[in-house]
Amino acid sequence: MDKFLINGPCKIKGNVSISGSKNASLPILAATLLFDQPVIIKNLPRVRDINTMLNLLKSLGSKIILSRDKKTAKIFNKKNMKTFASYSLVKTMRGSILVLGPLISKYHRSKISLPGGCLIGARPINYHLTALKKLGMKYKLKDGYILATSKGKLKGTIINFPKISVGATENSIIAACLAKGKTILKNCAIEPEIKDLTNFLNNAGAKIKWSGRTCKIIGVNFLNKTEYAVMSDRIEAGTFCVAATLAKGNLKIKNLNPKVIRTEINLLKKVGAKIKTCQNEILVKGPEKIKSIKSIKTKEFPGIPTDLQAQLMVLMCKATGKSSITESIFENRFMHVAELQRLGAKIIVKNNTAIIEGKTKFVGAELMSSDLRASVALVLAAIVSKGKSYINRIYHLDRGYEKIENKLKKIGVKIKRLK
C-alpha cells in the first residue's frame, strides 16, 4: 500500500495549476445517462473517484472513449442500457447514488446498491429517495439494494428539502430534466458544483432556472449532443491557499475563478495572508505569524466548506493564540485530530467543536489517513513539521487530488511516494 514520506519543514514557492473539479464531474458524468446523443466532457480530474464513476457508467452500457491524457471523455449510450448498479462498484464511492435519478427518469427502473464511501458521517440518502418519490418513483429496500420503478415518465412537482443536501439537490435536478411539466425545488444546495451541473444540462437543452435556493425545471423530451468543460476544483485551490499561508509561501494558483472561494480568501486574509486575485489566478503570500481566529464554523455554500475544515485546523495549530472550529455538516469529521496530536498538536474536541491551543511546534511522525480531506491535512502538517513524516493509506488522497505529490514537488515540498 502506497505511503508518502515528507521531510519538513518546507517553504512553498512557485506556480500550481488547479485540476478539474471532482465534485462537479461526478454529477455531470451521472447526468450523461439521460442522453441518446454523444456527450463530450472535458477537464476531468485524473483521480480514483472519476475512474469509479466511468467504470460504473461502462457497467450500465455506456461506451467511453478517453483522450490520451484521460481528461476528456466521449460518452455514447446504447439504446438498451442496463439499470443495475452493483455493490462492488457502488461500495467504494458515495457519489454512485447519483445514477439513481437519471436511470429512473430515462429508463423508469433501477436496481442500485446502497452506497459506501468514506467514514466522515452517516450521510443518509433518505432526502434523495423522498424527493424522487415525489416525482413518481416507487421503491423498496431489499438485501442492501434500492429497487426502484416508475410508471412511465416522472411528473413535475414541488419539493421542499427539509435540510440542505448537495447530493439530493443534484439527483432531483437530473431526474426532473426529462419529467413531465414543471418541477420546483426549494431549499436547495447552491454550491458552485451544482451550478456547473445545471450549466451543463442547460447547454444540452434543459430548461433550468435559479432564484436564490429555489430551482425551477421545465421538463424536456430529450437532451441534445453537447460538449462541456468541467469547472476547476475549488477545494484543491483552497487547500493550496492554506498551504501557502501555512508555510510562509509565495504561490501563484492558476486555472480557477477566485469568486468561488471568496469566503476562504477573506478568512485567510484575516489570519495575515496577503492575497491578490486576477481573472483566473490567485497570488498568496504567507505571513511570518499566523493570527488565530476565535471561532470558525463550517456551513453550506457560501460558508466555509466542510471539505476545508481539516486543512484550516492545521493552520490554526500554527496560529499565535487559541481558536475553535465547529463542524456543522458531518458528525464524524474530526478523525484527523488524533493524528495531528501525534505531531504535537494541542486540540480538545467537545461534541462537534475542536478547541485548538495554537503555537504548535510540529515534529515529524508516522501517520494514518482516515478520509480524503483528513489525509491532505496530514500532508500540510507534515510540510511544516521538523523531520520526517510517513503518511499511510494515501489511497484516500488519490480519490480526490490529482497527482498531488508532483504538484507539491514543483513548489518546494520534499515529498516521495513509497510503495
Topology:
Layout: E1 3-8, E2 13-17, H1 22-31, E3 39-42, H2 48-59, E4 63-66, E5 73-76, E6 84-85, H3 87-90, H4 100-107, E7 109-113, H5 126-134, E8 138-142, E9 145-149, E10 158-160, H6 166-176, E11 182-186, H7 192-203, E12 207-211, E13 214-218, E14 226-229, H8 234-246, E15 250-254, H9 262-270, E16 274-277, E17 281-285, E18 295-297, H10 309-317, E19 323-326, H11 336-343, E20 347-350, E21 353-356, E22 366-368, H12 372-383, E23 387-392, H13 395-398, H14 404-410, E24 415-418
Helix pairs in contact: 1-2, 1-7, 4-6, 5-6, 6-7, 8-10, 10-12, 11-12
Describe the protein:
The chain folds into two domains: 3-19 and 232-418, UDP-n-acetylglucosamine1-carboxyvinyl-transferase, Chain (Alpha-beta prism); 22-229, Alpha-beta prism (UDP-n-acetylglucosamine1-carboxyvinyl-transferase, Chain). Helices cover 31% and strands 25% of the residues. The protein has 14 helices and 24 strands. The chain is elongated and about 65 Å long.
Features:
419 residues; alpha/beta; UDP-n-acetylglucosamine1-carboxyvinyl-transferase, Chain; 2 domains; 4-stranded mixed beta sheet
* CATH class annotation of the largest domain: Alpha Beta
Overall number of domains: 2
Mean pLDDT: 95
DSSP summary, beta strand count: 24
Strand order of the largest sheet: 22-23-1-24
Taking the sheet with the most strands, its summary is: 4 strands, mixed
Radius of gyration: 22 Å
How much strand content do the residues show?
15-25%
Assembly annotation: single chain
- Architecture of the largest domain, CATH level 2? Alpha-beta prism
State the distance separating the first and last CA atoms.
6 Å
**Cα shape:** elongated
Structural class, from helix and strand content? Answer: alpha/beta
